[in-house]
Design goal:
Mean pLDDT: 84
Number of helices: 29
Largest sheet: 8 strands, antiparallel
Strand order of the largest sheet: 8-9-5-4-3-6-7-10
Radius of gyration: 47 Å
Low-confidence stretches: 460-465
Structural class: alpha+beta
Number of strands: 10
């Protein structure tokens, strides 16, 4: 029972203490809202009490002090003429009020809500009311003197004390007002007051009072008003230094707020009705629950304001201020990471993505990539902070976002070429982080995952690269950075990651073709080999060359690897497409190397190139002859292919029916004919089987008769004609007759 009674007594005591604190707070809040009235009442009480105290206690000692300094005891204070005092007080008050009106009215044109700030400045209110009340004190003394109610102490107190003090502080007060209206001081004052209020939330009194909804709402509104005031001033002022100070102090506000937030009661984070009507939150209906759960409503307010600031600055062309917003966001992120405030880290990642979206839209509209470049850099710094603190899940998320935005920016590059460089910048940030986690020996699977993300930056799955400008493909900076990363792994003898990058680079072979791929490799490796650590121009990030690699001595060896792998890739692709055997594919590769334009795929697509390569092979052995025959059939470079226009007799398919005519050796005015079937067509001869050997012309090795051959393709009904003759060295072989090849096959009829 005693324990229950004690607990009940404690609860009653706490309740009573809370009620007392509540009434005290309400009184203080009323005085704070009505500072002018409170100042007036306070000054009246102060002057009255001081007058009474001076008369009762200090007047006689004061006369003694005067006697010491003057050498005689003063008397006759009743006869002091107070007629001049009203005019002096009026002049002093007029000077002060005139200065206030002039300074405040001029300054308020460039600093919004300055008058509101002044009306809450206690030193100013107290001094002005002190002048007014002291002047009224002099008037009352004169009135009482007219009816012979003279109190000498009051006369002395007004003229010797009040008037002297007021005059003494007049000019310091004017200087104070001039300094007060200086924009930087106004900003510092708002920032300082807001910090005081944030720290006040951690006190026991505030912890108890924020359980009361009205008081909690008042706290929230005042904190929001401070941010709104800074935002308003930021929009009005024109000096960059002031704007930078405001952005920095808004950021410092969040830094301090995040540090003290764990010491604030949970009730404070309930979003109150007046806060929900704030201009920044009106569009966030439905998200209040999440903000209350994650305790991020104040941070969301600040980030909304910073986002608006960012938009205004990029639209106004203030690149440095826009960059400062992103830089401050990164620093806030570092604070959130240090304090392990995961909810705030989530919010900051979203805000960085939002800044990227703003910058992308601006870049597309204006073909200006500078803002996007700066945001990508500061986003990279933030992700680097995540890596410093081993925040693996967040790091993977940000890499995914880098890849997504890199792909999107790449898509827009066709219409805004300046954006292609930004893809390189994003890849650079990813590359730096990959080198960092490798040097710190992070988990291999995680490194492989992150490496896979950077390898997708230049490989957008929904972009048709064939439609893009070849110049962009051949000057692909992302590929240069990926090769530079491969050289980093090569230096550390990491074959697994080198192989992963090699495999990705090989995807370009099929997309670009061998010729363009070779150009890409030569340009990329040449740039890596000869690029210095600095660039010859300056940017917002200095003159650091993002394409520089310290592994330039490995470039030539890696280029050989690329070409060897490209050869295997091309052979593999063509072999699968045409079902070539290894020897056939190798012979085809050898033939492609004999051409001026070395294009392995082209020799499989264009019969003319294939025929030219055969001519350059020179003397052929039986094995190569057999392989060439098989290649021709598999590549469909024969007359059986309806899409092929036959230009060489080597392309006549076996089984084709030939109709031959020749001038009669006995009568030159008549022609004789015979028909024959093509049995075999080798690179050297056509082997035909005549239907009746008796119809053949008489064979004369010394003088062969020219024979005109005609044949018709079965599908498109083209009629071809060519002129040739029997092989004079060996006309017949195994009951077949050898016909010399010709490159002059023409169409004589069609359809």
């Amino acid at each position: 029972m005693d324990t229950v009674s004690e607990q009940t007594a404690v609860k009653e005591s706490q309740k009573s203490s809370l009620q007392v604190s509540f009434y005290i707070f309400r009184a203080l809040a009323f005085a704070d809202r009505n500072r002018s009235t409170a100042s007036l009442i306070g000054v009246v009480l102060l002057v009255t009490l001081c007058d009474i105290l001076f008369d009762a206690v200090l007047f006689e000692p004061y006369k003694g002090v005067i006697a010491i300094f003057s050498g005689s005891f003063p008397g006759g204070f009743e006869g002091v003429d107070m007629g001049f005092s009203a005019e002096v007080w009026q002049a002093l008050l007029g000077m002060i009020l005139g200065t206030l009106i002039l300074v405040i009215s001029i300054a308020s044109q460039s600093i919004p809500k300055l008058i509101d700030l002044y009306m809450k400045d206690l030193p100013s209110l107290i001094y002005v009311w002190f002048l007014i009340v002291s002047g009224m004190h002099a008037i009352l003394i004169n009135l009482y003197a007219d009816i012979d109610l003279v109190r000498p102490a009051s006369r002395v107190f007004n003229t010797h004390i009040l008037l002297v003090l007021s005059a003494f502080f007049a000019f310091p007060y004017i200087f104070y007002i001039l300094r007060y209206t200086k924009p930087s001081n106004v900003i510092s004052r708002i920032y300082g007051n807001n910090l005081d209020q944030i720290h006040d939330l951690t006190t026991e009194r505030a912890q108890a009072l924020i359980t009361v909804p009205n008081i909690r709402e008042q706290y929230q509104v005042q904190m929001f008003e401070a941010l709104n005031q800074l935002d308003d001033i930021l929009e009005y002022v024109s000096f960059k230094e002031l704007k930078a100070d405001i952005i920095h102090q808004m950021s410092l506000t969040i830094h301090e707020y995040v540090r003290v937030k764990p010491h604030i009661g949970d009730e404070f984070f309930t979003v109150m009705p007046k806060v929900r009507t704030d201009i920044s939150f009106k569009t966030m209906i439905g998200q209040y629950g999440d903000m209350e759960k994650t305790k991020t409503f104040y941070e969301q307010k600040l980030f909304r304001l910073l986002g608006n600031v960012y938009i205004r600055q990029i639209e106004d062309g203030s690149f440095d201020l826009a960059s400062l917003v992103a830089a401050e966001m990164s620093e806030i992120g570092l604070t959130a990471i240090e304090l392990e405030d995961d909810h705030l880290v989530d919010v900051i990642i979203i805000r960085f993505n939002t800044l990227l979206r703003f910058a992308i839209k601006h870049a597309i509209k204006n073909n200006e990539a500078r803002n996007l470049y700066n945001v990508a850099f500061h986003y990279g710094n933030f992700v680097n902070h995540l890596a410093d603190y081993q925040r693996i899940d967040y790091l993977k998320r940000c890499f995914m976002y880098f890849r997504i935005y890199g792909i999107e920016i790449f898509k827009h590059g066709k219409n805004s070429p300046a954006l292609y460089f930004i893809v390189d910048v994003i890849a650079t940030e990813m590359k730096k982080l990959l080198e960092k986690v490798y040097n710190e020996k992070w988990d291999r699977d995680l490194q492989a995952h992150l490496l896979g993300e950077i390898l997708q930056v230049d490989n957008p799955p929904d972009v048709n690269k064939e439609d893009l400008d070849q110049g962009v493909l051949i000057n692909n900076g992302v590929r240069i950075l990926q090769i530079g990363l491969a050289l980093f792994y090569e230096r550390h003898n990491d074959k697994e990651f080198v192989e992963k990058i090699l495999k990705d680079v090989m995807d370009d072979v099929n997309v670009l073709g061998e010729i363009n791929f070779s150009k890409v490799i030569e340009i990329s490796c040449g740039r890596l080999k000869f690029a210095g650590p600095t660039f010859w121009e300056d940017t917002d990030r200095g003159n650091l060359n993002i394409y520089f690699t310290p592994d330039q001595n490995l470039v030539d060896g890696f280029k050989i690897k690329l070409y060897d792998r490209a050869r295997l890739k091309l052979i593999e692709t063509i072999s699968k497409e045409f079902r070539l055997e290894e020897e056939e594919a190798q012979l085809l590769w050898e033939m492609s190397r004999l051409m001026d334009v070395k294009d392995y795929k082209a020799i499989t697509q264009k019969a003319k190139i294939f025929e030219q390569a055969i001519q350059k092979l020179g003397q052929l052995d039986y094995q190569k002859l057999d392989l060439l025959v098989k290649l021709r059939e598999k590549l469909r470079f024969t007359s059986e292919n309806p899409d092929l226009i036959v230009g060489s007799s080597r392309q006549i398919a076996p089984g084709a029916q030939l109709t031959a005519s020749f001038r009669s050796p006995t009568n030159h005015h008549t022609y004789e004919e015979f028909s024959a079937l093509v049995r075999f067509n080798s690179p050297n001869f056509i082997y035909i089987e005549p239907s009746d050997a008796k119809q053949l012309p008489a064979l004369n090795k010394e003088q062969q008769l020219p024979i005109t051959f005609r044949f018709t393709t079965s599908r498109n009904k083209r009629v071809y004609q060519f002129t040739s003759q029997f092989d004079p060295s060996k006309t017949q072989e195994r009951n077949l007759y050898r016909i010399l090849h010709t490159e002059k096959v023409k169409i004589i009829a069609e359809g």
